[in-house]
Amino acid sequence: MSIIVTGGAGFIGSNFILDWLQGGDEIVVNVDKLTYAGNLDNLTSVQKNPRHQFVMGDIGDTALFAKLLTQHTPRAIVNFAAESHVDRSIHGPADFIQTNIVGTFRMLETVRSYWTGLPTQEKSAFRFLHVSTDEVYGSLGKGQPAFTEQHRYEPNSPYSASKASSDHLVRAYHHTYGLPVLTTNCSNNYGPFQFPEKLIPLIIHNALAGKALPVYGDGQQVRDWLYVGDHCAAVRRVLDAGQVGETYNIGGGNERVNLDVVRTVCTILDDFHPKPDGGNYQSQITFVKDRPGHDRRYAINPEKIQHELGWKPAETFETGIRKTVRWYLDHQAWVRNVTTGAYRHWVEKQYSL
Hints:
Blueprint: E1 2-6, H1 11-23, E2 27-32, E3 52-56, H2 62-72, E4 76-79, H3 86-91, H4 94-116, H5 120-125, E5 127-133, H6 158-177, E6 181-186, E7 188-190, H7 199-208, E8 213-216, E9 222-227, H8 228-241, E10 247-250, E11 255-257, H9 258-272, E12 285-288, H10 303-309, H11 317-330, H12 332-338, H13 341-351
Parallel strand pairs: 1-2, 1-4, 2-3, 4-5, 5-6, 6-10, 7-9, 8-12
Antiparallel strand pairs: 9-11
């Protein structure tokens, strides 16, 4: 038996593959285009594992995907492949439209053709699991109830709009063609192997380098934080037991103000890696111009997945963030390898430092 994981060299995808290989005996075919955020160094520990088979490719390459389906006859596809950074989508939305909408459409067409030709038993057991984001629901006001699976879609950035479009395509392929799909919408992930453009690894990286710690606007935006290992466990559970055609919201139950997250990381760094001059890392916090259309608050209501599938996060924010800071401190070689000149240029452009 085998599964195909798309975007498996990215942050969440690589964590999922490492978890999957540790917890079972199935082959994983990892399809990744290796854009700037895809990094095979994330998977060094399974490089020689015969159950991990890497294929460099685009989900929109129908000929390649059809060949992989025929060759490996997977029982499931888990789709992590996506352009996923709001700031980048504001500066250059075309890549997000191409990958998240057109790529998902082409993959769905290829998978539908494959699934239609399967024998009855295999056809019934097959699953296509699409991993999405809470950002498709838009922004919540203070005190408003957290997002449920029934919340209407109100995306506010090119990124979230492209993910909302892909969600709609997945739903349509189930209702029109009967493709056995599952969709998950998760809150903000953090943990090992996250590219240092996202808030937490960016703050760790800049703090250690003695650089400014950029905080958008007043820093009072609220996010619900989910440790990546908990997210992977939830996706595995949905794949195993989720009801076909259903959506499951995955949240950590850890709403935090962005500025408080930055301060927490600084405090942990003060403990784990004190500054030579005896100062504190919070002194490096710098407020920068807010990004256009910045959503004020996200929050996930995970009651459905908890009640129906028995999943709940193992990490609190307090335990998960300490594990995360410790991991980055212990893996500075990995950080150096991903922070290329192109990355530094991007940060300088984005935050106008």
